[in-house]
Amino acid sequence: MDERKFYVVANWKAITGKENIKEMCKMLSISVLDDNTDVIVGCPFPYLQFVRQLLPERFYLAALNCYKECKGAYTTGEVSPAMLKDVGVSWVLLGHSDRRSVLNESDELVAEKAAYALSEGLSVIVCVGESYDDRSAGNTESTLANQLCSLNKHIKHWQNVMLVYEPVWALGSGKSARPHNAQSVLGFIRKWLENYVSKEMSDTVPLLYGGAVTSTNCKILALQPDVDGFLVGNNSTKHDLLQIINTNINDEDKQSVDSGEYLSPYIDITDF
């Protein structure tokens, strides 16, 4: 799919300290990075404007959440898309498994947030994925279909949407889903988009993989036909991030992958 670019989203989660952030921004700014990879830095609210001032324009800035309204009841303590745009944010990350599982954000709420952010001019990165119980019961596709149907109920135009597959059953294990597991689910999402949104959106909506992405496993994961990039969590504040951004796939890389050079820990349902 030549229409789709490659993306790396760095999820800085709860990074703290301006000095740490300065070091991260300096590392990104002075490093030689693949021009064909779009880099999106996801940053906690208090540091968004600070990071925007430090990073060159080639780096996009993402907030790690936003609310579904800009005023009225329930908005105290929330952040609206308009606020984010004011400080130079162009993307927002929604539906991360941390928020779904710990804060009990429903599929409906995630979809409402995404639709409102889009209507306010932000691009959205929406995470979807299944739990261990869902996967072991054979409900992977139905779980993802429910999440995607909620999105489709509220989102009218998908041009500025990016989807991330997070295998919740593998998160926290320090191991990535096996490449064929990642591809199987992303292939399902691609087909779902074709069937229920449009062939055009199926061809162009970026699909990312998120879950223990490292400099060791990124190449073999990127070789999967429906992997358009990565959401990077724990390694997003390490030098590994640079190698992940520079995941250039060429014939030499392909041979190295085939020979087993890029071996790393993987996990799938048969490992439990």
TrEMBL record:
GO MF term list: triose-phosphate isomerase activity
Cleavable signal peptide: none
Enzyme Commission number, as recorded: 5.3.1.1
Any GO BP: glyceraldehyde-3-phosphate biosynthetic process
Pathway: Carbohydrate degradation; glycolysis; D-glyceraldehyde 3-phosphate from glycerone phosphate: step 1/1; Carbohydrate biosynthesis; gluconeogenesis
SUPFAM superfamilies, A to Z: Triosephosphate isomerase (TIM) (SSF51351)
Key words of the record: Gluconeogenesis, Glycolysis, Isomerase
Broadest EC class assigned to this enzyme: isomerase
Catalytic activity: D-glyceraldehyde 3-phosphate = dihydroxyacetone phosphate
Similarity remark: Belongs to the triosephosphate isomerase family.
Oligomer status and interactors: Homodimer.
NCBIfam families: tim (TIGR00419)
Record protein name field: Triosephosphate isomerase
Species of the source: Glossina morsitans morsitans (Savannah tsetse fly)
